[in-house]
Amino acid sequence: MWRRLIYHPEVNYALRQTLVLCLPVAIGLIVGQLQYGLLFSLVPACCNIAGLDTPHKRFFKRLIIGGTLFAGSSLAVQLLLAQGAPLPLVLTALALILGVTAEISPLHARLLPASLIAAIFTLSLAGSMPVWQPMLLYATGTLWYGLFNWFWFWLWREQPLRESLSLLYRQLGDYCEAKYSLLTQHADPENALPPLLARQQKTVDLITQCYQQLYMLSEKKHHNYKRLRWMFQMALDLQEHISVSLHQPEEVQKLVEQSHAEAVIRWNAQTIATRLRVMADDILYHRYSGRFTMEKQIGALEKIARQNPENPVGQFCAWHFSRIARVLKTLRPLYPRDLMADRQRRLPLWSALKSYLSLKSPALRTSARLSVMLSIASLAGNVLHLPKPYWILMTIMFVTQNGYGATRVRILHRTLGTLVGLMIAGATLHFKVPDGFTLCAMLAITLLSYLILRKNYGWAMIGFTVTAVYTLQLINLNGEQFILPRMIDTALGCLIAFGGMVWLWPQWQSGLLRQNAHAALEADQDALRLILSDDPQAPTLAYHRMRVNQAHNTLFNSLNQAMQEPGFNTRYLADMKLWVTHSQFIVEHINAMTTLAREHNMLTPDLAERYLQSCEIGIQRCQQRLNSEGAGSTGDANILEAPDAAPQGPLSTMERHLERIIGHLNTMHTISSVAWRQRPHHGIWLNRTLSGEKR
């Protein structure tokens, strides 16, 4: 029982965050310095946003950089304000200077909002204590945060990676069960495919997250994570075989009518899904998985395949399910390989600075957007006669996310959570509860809020707002005066953040659809060249297969976010949704062909070359359609002539996959030709070349 409790992801996370906040408060209460203990507990908020609790091979180096930036931002704000510099100018300078961190790497990019929040916290403290005290507070607070998290991760070793792997195995089980529960509905892809695409997206996202966590480990720790690396490679094999599809709905319907194949296939899928969920719990709770066999299920499926030799569906399912069963039985990957190389960009400071100074830099746009929003908030504070509009500024920083959709949802949750929390705190302040009971209640509320934070941000904000009001009550005894102004500040901060995301250099995902579609086609082409080469190696095949899946996942994420963005052509997005659907079909064919190529189920060199030329012509037609500048430049005519069709006759499994890929590419070219006429005629859509291409 204790194992299931302490290793539960939400419980483990809530305990860690609550202890790192509350232990300084407890120490301050014991030594008679409660106010400093409460102020000390503000620093972990900056550290959380900066991602300083991420297990990393440079953990303490990142800790030193973070603490230095926090203390430096605090010093800069105090000195500049003391010299009479206007607050909007101070915040603009800080945002533009710290924005270069986003060019170094995505992980370094989190230092920008964290450092700005440290500066805003300092704004609330300036004038009430010496200049050195906030700096010391950030330096010692960051050190405490880092040492506590280092000890916690040493105590609960491997826990972050175990949580991600557990979620991955559970998602694979759900994906497998959902896919084969819709077996007879695949003839209607418009209704059957969207839920499967969503599950495939979550699976690839979790695989990418596991890759990132493994990249962050130092080389000497890889030996300690050997078993978890095996489990991750097993998950890659399972995803490869679960995500394949033959895409012959007529043959599926025929086999279902001629036999009891539907019940047998579902039996196999449900057995696999149940086993994957058991393994997910075993990974999370540090247990060894028991024995497993699927001989009866696989035997029944092979019997149907023998009884219907002319139908490829039975043989297809039997072969892939047998490979999945082998992985689950042996608890080993199908073949040994190294991890895919880390493709995440990391630039030295000087190179990052040169890239940052370009007007095309997304990091520069982000920091400029933040600087303008913070300046507007500062000016609004002056209009409202607020000498320190820190709550408006902090609201902007906490609700601003990477995309429009995420920011909109965060604004809604934060606004409602803050308003409800302020009303609750205002009602309870009248009871004049003793400080000891107040601190105990704050501890319980903090723990409960962190338990639900990652899944219910709005509800958690209610608890955090209540604790913030009582913190001010304990420090300055002005909690009641705090409530009404903070309601106004929260609403104003959310409005400024929303306006900034919409009007200040927005990076609409709809504008990136063309670029991401081009990248997905490029990944498809590289994978097909490898699969149809003379001697493809298993590790290289696995690398390119995962690149194809990740490229399509990026495209699918862009489409989902674009469909939530305001003022865009819905007909164009509907056509692009159909284009992405056919792209997903190609991904599933490449997944299936990868397994065939690894088993050396190859074509003759002449036939492979002919199919490769046909696929490349289809991909180039789609790419040129994406690159073309107008409806009349290429029209609907073929840009390149396809070679003569392959000779008629019985087709192998590899040939069937290639024929269907060519068919999907032709359909995608037709769709993009129709969709292009409905594209926007402004901004990035007027460019004749894609981002990153040379003219």
From TrEMBL:
GO cellular component: plasma membrane
Sequence segments annotated as region (Disordered): 628-649
Subcellular location: Cell membrane
Sequence ranges assigned to domain Integral membrane protein YccS N-terminal in this UniProt record: 63-331
PANTHER family: INNER MEMBRANE PROTEIN, P-HYDROXYBENZOIC ACID EFFLUX PUMP SUBUNIT-RELATED
Record has Metal-binding as a keyword: no
Highest taxon of source: Bacteria
Limits of the Integral membrane bound transporter domain: 376-498
Membrane topology: Multi-pass membrane protein
InterPro entries: Integral_membrane_YCCS_YHJK, Memb_transporter_dom, YccS_N
Keywords: Cell membrane, Membrane, Transmembrane, Transmembrane helix
Organism: Superficieibacter electus
A Pfam family the protein falls into: FUSC_2
Protein name per the record: Uncharacterized protein
Signal sequence, start to end: none
Main localization (coarse): membrane
Family: Belongs to the YccS/YhfK family.
Transmembrane regions: 87-104, 111-129, 135-156, 411-429, 436-453, 459-475, 487-505
